[in-house]
Design goal:
Number of domains: 1
Strand content: 15-25%
Order of helices and strands: EEEEHEHEHHHEEHEHEHH
CATH class: Alpha Beta
Helix content: 25-40%
CATH superfamily: Alpha/Beta hydrolase fold, catalytic domain
Strand order of the largest sheet: 1-2-4-3-5-6-9-10
Largest sheet: 8 strands, mixed
Number of strands: 10
Number of helices: 9
Structural class: alpha/beta
CATH topology: Rossmann fold
Shape: globular
CATH architecture: 3-Layer(aba) Sandwich
Length: 284
């Protein structure tokens, strides 16, 4: 299966969109994780060739534009842009697949648009990362100070592309997986090679949802949900169980891989589980 490249302009941003498969097939909108890009699904999408995969580089990631100088990055803004991509690519009803941060965005969208989301596949995440209301003041103070007092950090510079790939691999993925992400994520300037995602992504968010907020979104998800977890799950097991109990239709598969197991783990098994889920839920 051969991929294709597209661009979508929304909210004054030009987003790169990678697709796999036949546009006449059942559509999947897939959202990547924090500081990753659309290549995170390069191993998984070809395993499910009977589906049409639409995978944007979210703003500030991969080949997509960065936000304007005064703008902020938040899950709800990503959600707006993901739905704008769905509209631009002609996806009326579709399956959502989200990894990590992209899974958090997908959890919100499944609650907000029950008439458009046929099923939800969450890869090593359920819901969003939350902050207790009692911590909101300190979080916002930290975020303000970062923006007002400290210069934005510079991207690391590497002499070769291989060194940039190795640096990313040290953060918990294979060299092969890092190289795939690097094909869309590494750029070059006179000083050397660097990962071109927006460095503002490393700043503390101004505000997060609370666990109570997040619970209301999970309770509102009416479509079937498949949760594939790993031994390196983002959330503790007790948090996963508590959140799963809020979702009306949910099935969990726990696999022995790492957080990026859809990219550098047993991808074939993950694809089989997704296909079985979509077939049995009538979503494919």
């Amino acid at each position: 299966m051969v991929s294709q490249e597209h661009t979508v302009t929304t909210h004054d941003l030009t987003l790169a969109v990678k697709t796999w498969g036949n546009p006449d097939s059942s559509p999947i909108l897939a959202l990547h994780g924090w500081q990753d890009n659309a290549a995170t699904f390069d191993k998984l999408a070809p395993q499910l060739p009977d589906l049409y995969w639409v995978i944007p580089d979210l703003p500030g990631h991969g080949l997509s534009h960065h936000r304007g100088i005064a703008a902020e990055y938040s899950l709800w803004h990503y959600g707006l842009e993901a739905m704008a991509v769905a509209d631009a690519m002609g996806l009326e009803q579709f399956v959502l697949v989200g990894h990590s941060m992209g899974g958090g965005v997908s959890s919100l969208l499944a609650a907000l648009f029950p008439d458009r989301i046929k099923a939800l596949v969450l890869l090593d995440v359920i819901g969003v990362i939350t902050t207790p209301a009692s911590d909101a003041l300190e979080q916002m103070r930290t975020a303000f100070n970062q923006r007002l007092k400290f210069p934005l950090r510079r991207a690391g510079i590497y002499k070769t592309r291989e060194e940039a790939v190795t640096a990313r691999a040290r953060r918990g993925i294979s060299e092969e997986a890092a190289a795939l992400l690097g094909a869309r994520g590494i750029s070059r300037k006179e000083e050397g090679y660097y990962w071109q995602h927006d460095q503002r992504l490393t700043r503390t968010s101004l505000l997060s949802l609370t666990e109570e907020h997040g619970a209301h979104f999970l309770e509102a998800i009416s479509c079937p949900v498949l949760l594939i977890t790993s031994k390196e799950a983002v959330f503790r097991e007790d948090v996963i169980r508590k959140r799963m109990a809020l979702v009306k239709q949910i099935r969990q598969i726990d696999l022995p891989g790492g957080h990026h197991q859809h990219l550098d783990g047993d991808v074939e098994t993950i694809a089989e589980q997704i296909q079985d889920f979509l077939t049995n839920s009538g979503s494919s």
